[in-house]
Design a protein that fits this description.
The protein is mainly beta. Helix content is 12%, strand content 52%. It has an eight-stranded antiparallel barrel. The protein starts with 21 loop residues before the first helix and ends with a strand.
């Protein structure tokens, strides 16, 4: 059995990042959130979208290379379920709650949720790999024409737990914020 990893026994290229690398990303996320809030406050004065409905669509990037989504919304809030894959040997599923701002055709949004990933083992010596991630989508939703929507998002993620496919691999979880950009097309009310 391998000894537990400590900073003294870990290879230098596999050590967790030092705190000096974290602040620039944290400042960028904070600045983006403040900018979004500054844009969203005047837009919110126009009033929220009223009613409720369901939209379905496809995604490219974000929690997977390609995926499908279903979003139920009520007024300016929504619950989104996204299912996708990176390599067709894994499955990603994310549930996020989002808040939209404004009543114009272009609406910014922020959200929070949970993203789970499972990966099939490559051989008999491996096990199913699993990961749980806190998921924070930030983006814009554009109503192109009636019932057709396109959007761009940056999914800011932070790992909660990981069970790697290789049972011998017990590297610590990376605790940095990881931004993953994505785009989508949706249809529905």
């Amino acid at each position: 059995m391998a000894p537990p990893y400590t900073p003294a026994t870990m290879r230098p290229d596999l050590r967790p990042p030092t705190p000096r690398f974290r602040p620039p990303l944290a400042r960028a996320v904070l600045a983006s959130a403040l900018l979004l809030a500054g844009v969203a406050v005047p837009a919110a004065a126009q009033g929220p979208r009223t009613g409720d409905g369901v939209r379905a669509g496809v995604t490219f990037g974000g929690i997977s290379t390609v995926g499908v989504t279903v979003e139920y919304f009520r007024d300016s809030r929504s619950m989104e379920l996204a299912v996708g894959t990176w390599t067709f040997r894994d499955l990603s599923a994310a549930l996020a709650f989002k808040q939209y701002f404004g009543a114009a055709a272009l609406k910014p949004y922020v959200g929070a949720g949970l993203w789970l990933v499972g990966a099939a083992p490559a051989n008999e010596a491996e096990r199913i790999g699993l990961a749980g991630v806190l998921h924070f989508p930030v983006g814009v939703d554009w109503r192109v024409v009636d019932d057709h929507y396109a959007g761009l998002a940056v999914n800011v993620n932070r790992g909660l737990f990981v069970r790697r496919s290789d049972p011998e691999d017990d590297l610590p979880l990376n605790d940095r914020l990881i931004p993953l950009p994505g785009a989508y097309y949706r249809w529905g009310r």
